[in-house]
Amino acid sequence: MKRKNVRAKAEQQFEFSKKLSAAVKEFESAVLMFQKQNFDRAKEIFERLAASGPVEVGSRATSYLKICEQKLAAGTPASRSARDYYDLGVAQLNARELDAAFESLTRADKAAPNQEHVRYALAAVCALRGNADTALEHLAGAIELRPANRSMAAQDQDFYPLSSDSRFRRLIRSGGS
Asked: Phi then psi for 103, rounded to 5 degrees?
């Protein structure tokens, strides 16, 4: 009886793994369409993944889907605004395209300096890239502009690379002291 249960669980895990792998491949193709600014096609794929994909992929697909809908509603602008660069940077961050995300978010910061959401996203990218000093600088700025970012950063997995850094732990403690 135990062998049947173990086998059944193994088969379930294998099926889930196959579904997750297929969803990740589909997600990657949607991100490629998104980057090529083919928002109609990307939207179709993200809708499908958000509705029926595994939760691990569906939540990120939902984020991209919202951006696609915004882009399609507004039309594709000839030049990008700070918000456009921010949206693109966050999508790239979620896809773990860290160099591209850093570039897009830096452009957003230059176009509209000292926006807390841009500084927070830059902090996350820098943390994931292993640049603790720059990550902490951006995070401190984001917290100064919006103190609620302190508790968000404490829970955000993107800041895991900083979790053993005493400067990060001090920064996310209430009051920053």
From this structure: -65, -45
- For residues 98 and 44, membership in a common domain is answered with no
Instruction: Decide if 144 is inside a domain.
Output: yes
Average pLDDT value for the chain: 87
- Measured CA to CA in angstroms, residue 59 lies from 15, 54, 100, 117 at distances of 20, 9, 21, 20
Domain containing 27: what range? Answer: 2-61
Is the pLDDT reported for residue 144 higher than 50?
yes
pLDDT exceeds cutoff 70 at 177? no
- pLDDT for 38: 82
pLDDT band for position 158 (cuts 50, 70, 90): very high
Q: Two tokens at 152?
A: 């968000």
